[in-house]
Write a structure and sequence with these properties.
- Two copies of one chain form a homodimer.
- Helix content of chain A is 69%, strand content 0%.
- By secondary structure, chain A is an all-alpha fold.
- In chain A, helix 5 (92-109) packs antiparallel against helix 7 (125-140).
- The longest helix of chain A has 26 residues, at 145-170.
- At the A-B interface, helix 7, helix 8, helix 9, helix 10 and helix 11 of A face helix 7, helix 8, helix 9, helix 10 and helix 11 of B.
- The structure holds a DNA duplex.
DNA sequence: CGGTTCTGTCAACGGTGTTGACGGAAAATT
DNA sequence: AATTTTCCGTCAACACCGTTGACAGAACCG
């Protein structure tokens, strides 16, 4: 339950851990984000988290009903970090781009959280903030009502999905990533022109672009189309 | 190793399992896809897979170096299913849309595979086919060289990312999905208009659109923008 | 037929999330 | 201030996970 953490939080006792730590939902979320940030996706487990904080692993279940609930809380914290220091400018398009890039960066820096939360509703306070911001920019662009909501949802889901999948890849062990790049080379370096004429024609470019990040280009395509819609009215 | 499966496959002996099954990479991939298809993302594990096939779980490691390698093979098989029965028409935009929808449907129907493969290169035969198809449509639309490759990569990554994240959500237990919908209601049904003016203004629409699938809209935005680029030349 | 290579089975390792019982410490009540 | 109640950190344990190494029999090759 999302409520659980907060309700209990308000009348929390500050008993100390065997190792001397004082627990709270915030402390746990902080430590969890630090773990995924430093040791990658595989770095987070209940036992390791307990070790990092200095408490018995199962103590975490006094603050979060499950790791899923913990992930949701971490997700909301990521939104907070995304918005931390963000100052909107004049142009709505620039602002949306900035918000997208910040979200992407934060998620890529905390891999496993992204996948856990990308399709979810944290229901947290910061989620409300960022939705309000995006909706605000879209309304400034001239969208309202259902059109604005549909665009906000598309834009948001796009960014979350892209960030999550990219984060997932970047979080994999170096050998896996290297093997993937090698497979690009092997599979598309030399293609049968009879069977795959289009692929063969562009093969060298395909291989050369294996490491190019597509998020930026895809983001630009989407923003341009939104702008076009705004101009049409 | 991806090569491993195939090489060994060619000179395979057909010893029978204790339960009478004859193993092969294809049999294993089939059974694995059936498991994730029927019992959701959590339905697949090496032990359960062995049970479904009728062999010792560890026998699978004679055909795939790891579950990751198995996932890649499953991913390539999903592409085959995507292309199975696909007949391209006249319009490149329609064709791209159809390919996107088919991919989405296949991934959503086999949740865990999507997340495992969305950011990866399977290097399989069918991957080559679909890339050739997409590149072909883009070239028909008037793109070539680097422009074509960049668009193909953006388009592909977008579809895979969106499909994977949607599949991830749909594969979660019903209670989780219900709780998420409830959280939409709770968090955005009644918002403080002072603090979040834009969100408050559109709140009812936001809640009403909680279950709307954004893939279609986002896909249309992207296709429209690609079309616009094609017209500009 | 003999030797070699393959491959299905088995036991085991170290890891995971989660549960339930327990006991002491903090808060609430009297 | 004493007593009751509630909380919450700890511990042991459960059922599961992916993966490894040894082993023995079946299949193949000469």
């Amino acid at each position: 339950m999302a409520a659980m953490a907060r309700v209990i939080e308000s009348r929390r006792r500050n008993t100390r851990t065997k190792a001397g730590a004082v627990l709270s939902a915030d402390v746990i979320v902080d430590a969890a984000l630090a773990l995924v940030g430093e040791h990658g996706a595989a770095g987070l487990s209940v036992r390791r988290l307990g070790g990092a904080i200095g408490c018995d692993p199962t103590a975490i279940y006094r603050y979060f009903a499950s790791v899923d609930a913990l992930f949701l809380a971490m997700g909301d914290r990521l939104i907070a970090r995304t918005l931390d220091g963000y100052r909107p400018g004049e142009d709505w398009k620039d602002n949306l781009r900035t918000l997208a890039r910040r979200t992407y960066a934060e998620y890529v820096a905390h891999p496993r959280v992204a996948i856990a939360v990308a399709s979810r509703v944290t229901g947290g306070a910061h989620e409300r903030r960022i939705i309000d911001l995006v909706l605000g920019e879209l309304r400034r662009a001239g969208f309202a009502g259902e059109r604005a909501v549909r665009l906000y949802r598309s834009f948001g889901d796009f960014i979350l999905a892209f960030s999550a999948v990219d984060a997932d890849f970047l979080a994999r062990p170096g050998e896996v990533r290297a093997a993937d790049l090698q497979r690009w080379q092997d599979a598309y370096g030399d293609v049968d022109a009879e069977q795959f004429p289009n692929l063969a024609a562009e093969a060298p470019i395909v291989v050369a672009h294996a490491t190019v990040n597509t998020f930026e280009l895809c983001l630009e395509l989407l923003l341009d189309q939104i702008e076009a819609l705004a101009l049409i009215r």
